[in-house]
Design brief:
The protein has nine helices and 14 strands. By secondary structure, the chain is an alpha/beta fold. The strands form two sheets. An eight-stranded mixed β-sheet has the order 2-1-4-3-5-7-8-6. The longest helix has 16 residues. Bound molecules: 2'-monophosphoadenosine-5'-diphosphate.
């Protein structure tokens, strides 16, 4: 347990609803609210930077974890436009905010505004976590550990054949995590050239087009494309899914995507992408607090905060 976290407060005082110095509107556990001019210094402030505000389940997960661990802290959502990112980080530093999650569209741009970025985040090319350490903003990435821990709920990737569908930002963290765990990774993408570039950059073992899945016999398949998001389509045909595979879908809206239902129909093991989000948030919690995250509490909060 780190010294700078005050403990033993279960109920947090409601904050007044008005805009912070830089107009950052936050949505916390008490609804729309923003930092008061004189925030209570005994309450640690954390949050997520994103734009547009949209729906995020991160405040629900983190606030539930703080309550479960008796931490005197509060987690807000901050709607920050790209052109205000530098100002928001200055404000975070000035106010001594303890940790910020970084979401779309800031994951790459944020790196140039930080005091330090660790080697892993640099390799992945994205930073989803900023933690204040001795006055410095330090950037890290927990998306890759989130993906890896999610897969490990079903299978240990070491020595396994894995296929990642997609070659965008989400694929980078997933491929990195699987490679770190010792899997043999192939990347398949609609645009084959992008898959090839990512494979070369990260040292994956192969690349190709989505319809080549049927030629491979992977034990792990992870969809990182946006196909299936709020629609009943899959990026690959059902017949290409091996019956022995663990199939995870980074798309979690709906929770049972077409890909996961196809996997189930084939006798394969479907795995919801919601675990990637829960585990990446849990890792953030641990990076800041130094204590093990209450995963089941965070999982329940994630479910309860659903649309
Ligand atoms: P993210 O950061 O969420 O990964 P992205 O970088 O835009 O978003 O990547 C989206 C991924 O989904 C890409 O792999 C994209 O394939 P292309 O590289 O060919 O664009 C994939 N994707 C999006 N729409 C798709 C579709 N209709 N069919 C197949 N793949 C699709």
């Amino acid at each position: 347990m780190k010294k700078n976290i005050a403990r033993h407060q279960r109920s947090l005082p409601p904050q007044r609803s008005r805009k912070g110095q830089f107009g950052i509107v936050m949505r916390g556990p008490h609804g729309d609210e923003s930092l008061t001019e004189r925030p209570n210094p005994e309450i640690a402030i954390c949050g997520i930077l994103l734009h547009p505000a949209g729906h995020t389940r991160s405040p629900a997960m983190h606030n539930a974890a703080y309550r479960a661990c008796d931490l005197r802290a509060v987690y807000h959502a901050f709607d920050v436009k790209p052109e205000r990112l530098a100002l928001a980080l200055d404000e975070a530093r000035a106010r001594g905010m303890k940790q910020l999650a970084v979401s779309i569209p800031h994951k790459e741009a944020v790196m140039e505004h930080l005091d330090q970025v660790d080697e892993t985040a640099r390799s992945i090319g994205a930073c989803n976590t900023v933690t204040l350490r001795e006055g410095a903003l330090v950037g890290q990435n927990t998306d890759w550990t989130g993906a890896l821990e999610a897969v490990r709920r079903e299978i240990e990737p070491e020595g396994r054949e894995a296929v990642v569908l997609g070659a965008g930002g989400a694929a980078r963290a997933v491929v990195y995590g699987l490679l770190q765990a010792g899997a043999r990774v192939s990347i398949l993408n609609r645009t084959e050239a992008r898959a090839g570039e990512l494979a070369t950059q990260l040292g994956a073992h192969g690349s190709g087009k989505l319809d080549e899945l049927g030629d491979l016999q992977p034990e792990i398949i992870i969809n990182t494309t946006s196909v299936g998001l709020r629609s009943d389509v899959s990026p690959v045909s059902e017949s290409a899914l091996p019956a022995s595979a663990v199939v995870m879908d980074a798309v979690y809206d709906p929770e049972k995507t077409r890909l996961l239902r196809d996997a189930e129909a084939r006798g394969a093991r479907p795995l919801s992408g919601k675990w990637m989000l829960i585990h990446q948030a849990a890792e953030q919690f641990s990076l800041w607090t130094g204590i093990e995250a209450p995963i089941s509490v965070m999982g329940r909060a994630f479910d309860a905060a659903g649309p």
